[in-house]
């Protein structure tokens, strides 16, 4: 589980970095961020993780979904996107999700870690 959460943190960190540096459409990045979050959650459930690490991973996934999903909400309210928009939640929450995924990686999340 530790490697899963570290990979999720790295993927979200790369997406946030691209958000700040490249001219890629933010809706594409938002879609990729949502897919990465959902895949991380499904893999965590399939591996049957337990413990505090899984709870922290679930919180990180929720924070990431709220952050990346806020860009879709901005797009739904203004599909033309002609006005400059500062989406504070779309900037802060994916970055916060990276930190929470790193915390989740440090916590025990398998039977071997918990019983151990």
From TrEMBL:
Keyword Transmembrane helix part of the UniProt annotation: yes
Transmembrane intervals: 26-46, 53-74, 86-107
The entry's keywords: Membrane, Transmembrane, Transmembrane helix
Protein's UniProt name: Uncharacterized protein
């Amino acid at each position: 589980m530790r490697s899963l959460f570290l990979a999720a943190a790295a993927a979200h960190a790369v997406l946030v970095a691209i958000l700040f540096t490249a001219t890629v459409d933010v809706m594409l990045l938002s879609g990729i961020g949502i897919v990465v979050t959902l895949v991380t959650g499904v893999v965590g459930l399939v591996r049957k993780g337990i413990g505090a690490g899984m709870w922290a991973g679930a919180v990180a996934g929720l924070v990431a979904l709220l952050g990346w999903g806020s860009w879709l909400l901005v797009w739904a309210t203004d599909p033309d996107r002609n006005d400059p928009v500062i989406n504070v939640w779309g900037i802060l929450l994916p970055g916060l999700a990276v930190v929470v995924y790193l915390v989740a990686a440090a916590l025990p999340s398998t039977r071997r870690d918990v019983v151990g």
